[in-house]
Automatic annotation (TrEMBL):
<dbReference type="InterPro" id="IPR001031">
    <property type="entry name" value="Thioesterase"/>
</dbReference>
<dbReference type="InterPro" id="IPR012223">
    <property type="entry name" value="TEII"/>
</dbReference>
<protein>
    <recommendedName>
        <fullName>Thioesterase domain-containing protein</fullName>
    </recommendedName>
</protein>
<dbReference type="InterPro" id="IPR029058">
    <property type="entry name" value="AB_hydrolase_fold"/>
</dbReference>
<comment type="similarity">
    <text>Belongs to the thioesterase family.</text>
</comment>
<feature type="domain" description="Thioesterase">
    <location>
        <begin position="34"/>
        <end position="257"/>
    </location>
</feature>
<dbReference type="Pfam" id="PF00975">
    <property type="entry name" value="Thioesterase"/>
</dbReference>
Amino acid sequence: MVVHTRSHATETAAGLVVESPFIWRARRPGHRHQLVCFPQAGGGAGAFNDWVHQLPADIEVVAVQLPGRQNRILEDPATEVAPLVRTLAQALRPVLDGPFSFFGHSCGALLAFELALALQARGGPRPAHLFLSGQASPVPFRDRPQLHGLSDEEFRAEVLRLGGFDEELAEDEDAMEALLPPVMDDFTLWEQHAMPVDARLDVPITALVGASDSRAPRGEMETWGAHTDTAFDLRVYPSGHFYLFEPGLSSELLEFIAGTVLES
């Protein structure tokens, strides 16, 4: 739910370029691996723009852009998961032409997991690794109190408690009126979706979380291990829900991801 307020033109010029409605990519000829990134609730592909410059040249960043965000702000948001996953599987076909991994944060982790399941069911291609960040696995996610039924004031308070907006932005009523609906749209989408609680992947999973993240306690993150038939590990960072956007921790996270995918 970190909101990036830079203009669309600035974001694309700095690294990620719009290739299709669903895909922003920073092309790196000769790359060895692609990291396909799925943004947090209410977030857009531009959230991963800085990663382009922090990851080694062997890794090409692809960021998924959902309707209702940034350059797609005038489009209606997705209201069902299954059609969204089918559309994404088709939209990503041109870029999944070599080794790749998925990274998803918050609701983006659920989308990355669902898409990986769909690709596996089709017989591939499938990611080499799944990095799932700041999001409980399907069973605890299903059983937790739902947010989309809260009043606007209660929902806003919960989002602000997680640290999704800086203080100046949080005090701007016009900005919050524009920025909160996409966050609510994502929670509505996923909280009304029947999660695949028994699904398993033949893909290694790494769960990543901030130590003080109340939305994804360590015990709930550990349950991602039940969804893989191969390797699982958990990495905890000394911060909250948005640890991945803090400069020092971001560098540490990306160094770990790069080492994992390039050495596999």
